[in-house]
Amino acid sequence: MVTIAFWKPFDVLSKFTDDAVPRRSTLADFIDLRNVYGAGRLDRDSEGLLILSDNPDLSAVLTEPDHHIERRYWVQVEGEPDTDALMQLRNGVLVKGKLTRPAKASKLRHAPDIPDRSVPIRHRETVPDSWIEVTLTEGRNRQVRKMTAAVGHPTLRLVRNQIGSITLDGLVPGRWRKLARHEENGLASR
Predict the structure, then answer these.
(1) Is 43 a catalytic residue?
(2) Collapsed DSSP state (helix, strand, coil) of residue 48
Protein backbone atom coordinates (compact mmCIF):
# COMPACT_ATOMS: atom_id res chain seq x y z
CA MET A 1 0.00 0.00 0.00
CA VAL A 2 1.09 3.55 -0.74
CA THR A 3 -0.05 6.71 1.01
CA ILE A 4 1.49 10.10 0.34
CA ALA A 5 1.29 13.64 1.66
CA PHE A 6 1.29 16.28 -1.09
CA TRP A 7 1.41 20.08 -0.92
CA LYS A 8 -1.09 21.09 -3.58
CA PRO A 9 -0.14 24.43 -5.08
CA PHE A 10 -2.60 27.20 -5.86
CA ASP A 11 -4.44 26.83 -9.21
CA VAL A 12 -4.06 23.04 -9.36
CA LEU A 13 -7.08 20.73 -9.57
CA SER A 14 -7.39 17.98 -6.93
CA LYS A 15 -7.67 15.30 -9.61
CA PHE A 16 -5.42 13.64 -12.17
CA THR A 17 -7.29 14.50 -15.37
CA ASP A 18 -8.92 17.54 -16.91
CA ASP A 19 -11.00 17.69 -20.07
CA ALA A 20 -11.15 21.48 -20.19
CA VAL A 21 -9.63 23.37 -23.09
CA PRO A 22 -7.16 24.76 -22.43
CA ARG A 23 -6.10 22.03 -20.01
CA ARG A 24 -5.65 23.11 -16.41
CA SER A 25 -2.92 21.92 -14.07
CA THR A 26 -3.73 18.65 -12.25
CA LEU A 27 -2.15 16.27 -9.77
CA ALA A 28 -0.65 14.37 -12.73
CA ASP A 29 1.70 17.30 -13.28
CA PHE A 30 3.30 16.59 -9.89
CA ILE A 31 2.65 12.96 -8.90
CA ASP A 32 3.89 10.06 -11.02
CA LEU A 33 2.35 7.24 -8.97
CA ARG A 34 -0.36 4.93 -10.26
CA ASN A 35 -3.60 4.05 -8.49
CA VAL A 36 -3.43 6.63 -5.71
CA TYR A 37 -6.48 8.76 -5.16
CA GLY A 38 -7.19 11.80 -3.05
CA ALA A 39 -8.78 11.25 0.35
CA GLY A 40 -10.66 14.53 0.13
CA ARG A 41 -10.11 17.57 -2.02
CA LEU A 42 -9.01 21.16 -1.99
CA ASP A 43 -10.61 23.57 -4.43
CA ARG A 44 -8.50 25.06 -7.17
CA ASP A 45 -8.07 28.33 -5.24
CA SER A 46 -6.85 26.59 -2.10
CA GLU A 47 -3.41 25.25 -1.26
CA GLY A 48 -1.86 22.80 1.10
CA LEU A 49 -2.03 19.27 2.34
CA LEU A 50 -3.69 16.47 0.39
CA ILE A 51 -3.44 12.83 1.42
CA LEU A 52 -3.51 10.38 -1.48
CA SER A 53 -3.63 6.62 -1.08
CA ASP A 54 -4.30 3.35 -2.86
CA ASN A 55 -6.04 2.16 0.33
CA PRO A 56 -9.84 2.69 0.02
CA ASP A 57 -10.38 1.95 3.73
CA LEU A 58 -8.01 4.75 4.72
CA SER A 59 -9.67 7.10 2.24
CA ALA A 60 -13.05 6.33 3.81
CA VAL A 61 -11.74 7.05 7.31
CA LEU A 62 -10.31 10.38 6.18
CA THR A 63 -13.37 11.56 4.27
CA GLU A 64 -16.36 10.37 6.31
CA PRO A 65 -17.33 13.00 8.92
CA ASP A 66 -18.31 10.32 11.48
CA HIS A 67 -14.59 9.62 12.05
CA HIS A 68 -13.99 13.21 13.25
CA ILE A 69 -10.57 13.55 11.59
CA GLU A 70 -9.41 17.10 12.21
CA ARG A 71 -8.30 19.28 9.31
CA ARG A 72 -6.44 22.47 10.22
CA TYR A 73 -6.31 25.51 7.94
CA TRP A 74 -4.42 28.77 7.92
CA VAL A 75 -6.80 31.36 6.54
CA GLN A 76 -5.93 34.88 5.45
CA VAL A 77 -9.11 36.93 5.72
CA GLU A 78 -10.27 40.45 5.03
CA GLY A 79 -10.39 42.52 8.17
CA GLU A 80 -9.55 41.47 11.69
CA PRO A 81 -12.08 39.05 13.20
CA ASP A 82 -13.13 40.00 16.70
CA THR A 83 -14.04 37.67 19.55
CA ASP A 84 -17.66 37.49 18.37
CA ALA A 85 -16.71 36.39 14.84
CA LEU A 86 -14.35 33.72 16.19
CA MET A 87 -17.05 32.51 18.60
CA GLN A 88 -19.50 32.18 15.71
CA LEU A 89 -16.98 29.99 13.85
CA ARG A 90 -16.47 27.91 17.00
CA ASN A 91 -20.21 27.39 17.51
CA GLY A 92 -20.99 26.71 13.84
CA VAL A 93 -22.51 28.99 11.21
CA LEU A 94 -25.34 28.56 8.73
CA VAL A 95 -24.09 27.53 5.31
CA LYS A 96 -26.82 26.97 2.73
CA GLY A 97 -29.39 26.59 5.49
CA LYS A 98 -27.43 23.98 7.45
CA LEU A 99 -25.39 24.62 10.58
CA THR A 100 -21.74 23.62 10.34
CA ARG A 101 -20.22 21.51 13.08
CA PRO A 102 -18.43 23.43 15.81
CA ALA A 103 -14.89 24.36 14.80
CA LYS A 104 -11.75 25.49 16.54
CA ALA A 105 -10.91 29.05 15.53
CA SER A 106 -8.26 31.47 16.74
CA LYS A 107 -6.26 34.46 15.53
CA LEU A 108 -2.66 33.92 14.51
CA ARG A 109 -0.25 36.51 15.89
CA HIS A 110 1.89 36.33 12.76
CA ALA A 111 1.41 35.16 9.21
CA PRO A 112 2.47 31.52 8.85
CA ASP A 113 5.94 30.86 7.48
CA ILE A 114 4.89 29.64 4.03
CA PRO A 115 6.01 30.49 0.51
CA ASP A 116 4.26 33.31 -1.31
CA ARG A 117 1.40 32.20 -3.50
CA SER A 118 2.16 31.95 -7.23
CA VAL A 119 -0.54 34.56 -7.88
CA PRO A 120 -0.55 37.29 -5.22
CA ILE A 121 -3.76 37.87 -3.29
CA ARG A 122 -5.56 41.16 -3.84
CA HIS A 123 -4.40 43.93 -1.58
CA ARG A 124 -6.55 46.90 -0.63
CA GLU A 125 -5.00 49.86 1.15
CA THR A 126 -8.21 50.63 3.06
CA VAL A 127 -9.00 47.08 4.24
CA PRO A 128 -6.55 45.29 6.53
CA ASP A 129 -6.15 41.55 6.43
CA SER A 130 -5.19 39.03 9.07
CA TRP A 131 -4.58 35.31 9.56
CA ILE A 132 -6.72 32.90 11.56
CA GLU A 133 -6.46 29.18 12.18
CA VAL A 134 -9.58 27.07 11.70
CA THR A 135 -9.87 23.36 12.51
CA LEU A 136 -12.81 21.33 11.17
CA THR A 137 -14.01 17.73 11.42
CA GLU A 138 -16.20 17.92 8.32
CA GLY A 139 -15.40 18.94 4.79
CA ARG A 140 -18.24 20.47 2.84
CA ASN A 141 -17.61 22.13 -0.50
CA ARG A 142 -15.67 25.39 0.07
CA GLN A 143 -16.73 25.25 3.71
CA VAL A 144 -14.03 27.41 5.29
CA ARG A 145 -14.56 30.12 2.66
CA LYS A 146 -18.32 30.08 3.26
CA MET A 147 -17.87 30.14 7.03
CA THR A 148 -15.51 33.12 7.06
CA ALA A 149 -17.75 35.00 4.64
CA ALA A 150 -20.77 34.27 6.87
CA VAL A 151 -19.04 36.03 9.79
CA GLY A 152 -18.04 39.05 7.67
CA HIS A 153 -14.44 38.15 6.84
CA PRO A 154 -14.07 36.76 3.31
CA THR A 155 -11.15 34.40 2.71
CA LEU A 156 -8.26 35.76 0.68
CA ARG A 157 -5.93 32.76 0.96
CA LEU A 158 -6.53 29.28 2.31
CA VAL A 159 -3.81 26.75 3.19
CA ARG A 160 -4.62 23.38 4.75
CA ASN A 161 -1.65 22.57 6.93
CA GLN A 162 -2.73 19.42 8.78
CA ILE A 163 -4.95 16.34 8.42
CA GLY A 164 -5.03 14.22 11.58
CA SER A 165 -1.40 13.94 12.66
CA ILE A 166 0.08 14.63 9.20
CA THR A 167 1.36 18.14 8.49
CA LEU A 168 3.04 20.08 5.70
CA ASP A 169 6.35 19.89 7.58
CA GLY A 170 9.19 19.01 5.23
CA LEU A 171 7.17 19.78 2.08
CA VAL A 172 7.08 22.69 -0.34
CA PRO A 173 4.37 23.46 -2.91
CA GLY A 174 4.29 20.83 -5.64
CA ARG A 175 6.23 18.18 -3.69
CA TRP A 176 5.11 14.97 -2.01
CA ARG A 177 6.49 12.39 0.35
CA LYS A 178 5.53 8.82 1.11
CA LEU A 179 4.09 8.35 4.58
CA ALA A 180 5.87 5.94 6.88
CA ARG A 181 3.85 2.90 7.92
CA HIS A 182 3.36 4.26 11.47
CA GLU A 183 1.99 7.54 10.03
CA GLU A 184 -0.45 5.67 7.80
CA ASN A 185 -1.50 3.43 10.69
CA GLY A 186 -1.99 6.49 12.89
CA LEU A 187 -4.42 7.96 10.39
CA ALA A 188 -6.31 4.69 9.91
CA SER A 189 -6.73 3.98 13.62
CA ARG A 190 -9.08 6.89 14.26
Answers:
(1) yes
(2) strand
Residues 52 and 8 both lie in one domain: yes
Q: What is the pLDDT along the chain (190 residues), one digit of tens a residue?
A: 899 999 999 999 999 999 888 889 999 999 999 899 988 889 999 999 999 999 888 888 888 878 889 999 999 999 999 999 999 999 999 988 999 999 999 999 999 999 998 888 877 777 889 999 999 998 888 999 999 999 999 999 999 999 999 999 999 999 999 999 999 888 876 5
3-state secondary structure (DSSP) of residue 167: strand
Rounded Cα gap, residues 2 and 15, in angstroms: 17
Catalytic option among 18, 43, 45, 54:
43
Same domain? For 130 and 179 the reply is no
Q: By residue range, what is the domain housing residue 27?
A: 1-67+169-190
pTM: 0.93
